[in-house]
Write a structure and sequence with these properties.
By secondary structure, the protein is mainly alpha-helical. It has 8 helices and 2 strands; from the N terminus they run H-H-H-H-H-H-H-H-E-E.
Length: 221
């Protein structure tokens, strides 16, 4: 008689236990952040992955996001500064040396900052036997600075442009690194959250091998 009652109780509880198990597992999977999604979000915007994993505790993500903002502002600030200086020395060369710099080579831009005029430059190249560096003696390539101070002002502005633009690739590399580090950090945090959750298992047979329901919980530390 007892065995019959246990069997009936087991058959009555079995559907409820099965539904509870499925719902618990589904809820657990839905609540967990996906490590892949966390990584991709941080690649798009550093810190976003940390916010996705835990929007109540994403201090590290804030640092990555703040760093990205600083890098972006620095990039556009240096680029704007370089463009402004470039416009200044283009105008200076046109008005004080009589030469148009648009579509001219970098070698030409350096040459007019080092020599007072085209003839002085070409004579130096011929003396050094740098035949390939000689510019044609045509109105398009001729220049003549009014005085050396103006030439020095031009050269100073040109060098500042080069220094500013030489920093841009480094800033891009830092932005890429920031995204990768943020993405990996968010990925690991999302993955570890799944590891630390308790694991639940159900058995429809009790410890004595008789029909029954047993719930096991395991906590990972």
């Amino acid at each position: 008689m007892k065995l019959v009652l246990k069997t009936l109780a087991f058959l009555i509880l079995l559907p409820a236990i099965s539904v509870f198990q499925v719902q618990a597992q589904t809820a657990q999977n839905e609540d967990l952040p996906n490590p892949r999604n966390a990584f991709l979000r941080s690649l798009a915007m550093p810190g976003w992955g940390h916010y996705y994993v835990d929007n109540n505790n994403w201090n590290r993500g804030k640092y990555h996001m703040a760093g990205e903002v600083v890098l972006i502002l620095s990039y556009f600030g240096l680029d704007a500064r370089a463009n402004s200086l470039e416009n200044d020395f283009y105008t200076l060369a046109l008005s004080k040396a009589g030469t148009e710099l648009s579509d001219k080579s970098r070698e030409y831009l350096i040459a007019i900052g080092s020599f007072d005029n085209l003839d002085a430059y070409n004579q130096e190249q011929l003396r050094l036997r740098n035949w390939d560096n000689v510019f044609p003696d045509t109105p398009e390539y001729r220049w003549n600075w009014e005085n050396r101070d103006l030439r020095n002002s031009y050269e100073s502005a040109r060098e500042k442009v080069d220094r500013n633009r030489s920093q841009l690739p480094a800033l891009v590399a830092l932005m890429v690194s920031n995204r990768l580090v943020s993405g990996l950090s968010a990925f690991i945090r999302a993955r570890d959250m799944g590891k630390n959750l308790p694991e639940a298992s159900f058995s429809y047979v009790n410890g004595l091998g008789e029909p029954g329901a047993t719930l096991n919980l395991r906590f990972n530390f």
